[in-house]
Amino acid sequence: QKEVEQNSGPLSVPEGAIASLNCTYSDRGSQSFFWYRQYSGKSPELIMSIYSNGDKEDGRFTAQLNKASQYVSLLIRDSQPSDSATYLCAVAKAAGNKLTFGGGTRVLVKP
Amino acid sequence: KAGVTQTPRYLIKTRGQQVTLSCSPISGHRSVSWYQQTPGQGLQFLFEYFSETQRNKGNFPGRFSGRQFSNSRSEMNVSTLELGDSALYLCASSLDGEQFFGPGTRLTVL
Description:
The complex is a heterodimer. Chain A has strands at about 5, 10-15, 20-25, 30-40, 45-50, 55-60, 60-65, 70-75, 85-95, 100, 105-110.
């Protein structure tokens, strides 16, 4: 079992729809959770961080964390073609900054 | 505020050579982490430096090493390069847990 698992996709969504991305992790000691967006040929860009159970909203993005189920998700509302990218889920334990990444979900937003 | 910078951006080496990559973190950030990204293995953690000390280390062979200077700039070195070391090497700096990545160094080993 991989430490952080994501569906590789591609997740195809029509423009204006909601894209829903999921991520599960195996280490119950994980304390910090992040979503990164990576365009082809570019480096990852931090879009959301979440540390406690529940929802966190930032613009069109909402991150959801459920530590009991070891599950973190990302919702992208009003999806735009510019949201087409690979979305990486990353988790870290409390100590230090070692991020463990999932394999990423490729999202395609079709006009 | 300037972002994370990495030099060089592209590098071509041959097997057996060694290489040094450089990273300058965001001003005020004291933690620098290094990652390797390949199509097959994805993003993997190499090591983290904080205040000139290695604080975390990933599961890479001893050929991969790093250091951090008093101004928080960091270098990583790969000795005796192998074909499998071809990858995008990413540096990330952090102040309070959130990590911000630089543009990366694309290393090709021939």
